[in-house]
Amino acid sequence: MVDITVRPMVAADADRVLAIYQAGLDAGNASFEITAPTWSAFDTARLSAHRFVAVDRDGGVLGWIAVSPTSTRAVYAGVVEHSVYVDPAAQGRGIARLLLDALIASTEAAGIWTIQSGIFPENAASLTLHQRAGFRVVGVRERVGRHHGRWRDVVLLERRSRVIA
C-alpha cells in the first residue's frame, strides 16, 4: 500500500468519484440507485468533513468514501450512514479498508459515535470488510425495495465508537 494514500475529497475529484460510483452501481450489488447523481447532488447530500479518496502515486483516484447524516434531528447528530466504492480495476488491494479506517478516525475525532450502512447480502466482500473493521450486523431488512425488477434484502450494519462515551 506504499503507493496508495488517502486524502480529503475535493471538487476536482468529481469526475472520477462519480465514474467509480457508476461502475459500482452497474455491477448490481452496491445500491438501489442505478445512476450516479450529479456532482451538485452528491456534494449537497454528504458531509464535507468526512469525504475521502484513495489515490495512487500519480494522483489518480482509485476509490472514495463519504457519509450522510441519518437524520436532521439533533439527537441523531452523532449517527451517519456511509458509502464506500473502489474502482473495479483496483479492487482486492485493501483500498476500501484504508478508506474506512480514515473515515472512522475522522468521524470519531468529530464526536460521531455511530457509522451505519445498508449492504445487499450478496455483496459478501463488503460484508466481510465491514465486519473486520468492527461493524456488527444489526438485522436484515427483508424485501425492503425493488432493484432491477426484483425484491432485495438489505443487511443493516453499524459500528459504535469505542472512544466516544
Describe this structure in words.
By secondary structure, the chain is of the alpha+beta class. The protein has one domain (5-160): 3-Layer(aba) Sandwich (Aminopeptidase). The protein contains 4 helices and 7 strands, in the order βααβββαβαββ. A 7-stranded mixed β-sheet has the order 1-2-3-4-5-7-6. α3 (95-109) links the parallel β4 and β5.
Topology record:
Elements: E1 5-8, H1 14-27, H2 39-45, E2 51-55, E3 61-69, E4 79-86, H3 95-109, E5 114-119, H4 124-132, E6 136-147, E7 150-160
Parallel strand pairs: 4-5
Antiparallel strand pairs: 1-2, 2-3, 3-4, 5-7, 6-7
Give a brief outline of the structure.
The chain is an alpha+beta fold. It contains four helices and seven strands. The protein has a seven-stranded mixed β-sheet with strand order 1-2-3-4-5-7-6.
Strand order of the largest sheet: 1-2-3-4-5-7-6
Order of helices and strands: EHHEEEHEHEE
Give the domain tally: 1
Straight-line distance between termini: 33 Å
E-strand count: 7
Task: Please count the helical segments.
Answer: 4
CATH superfamily: Gcn5-related N-acetyltransferase (GNAT)
Largest sheet: 7 strands, mixed
Task: Estimate the global geometry from the Cα principal axes.
Answer: globular
Low-confidence stretches: none
CATH topology: Aminopeptidase
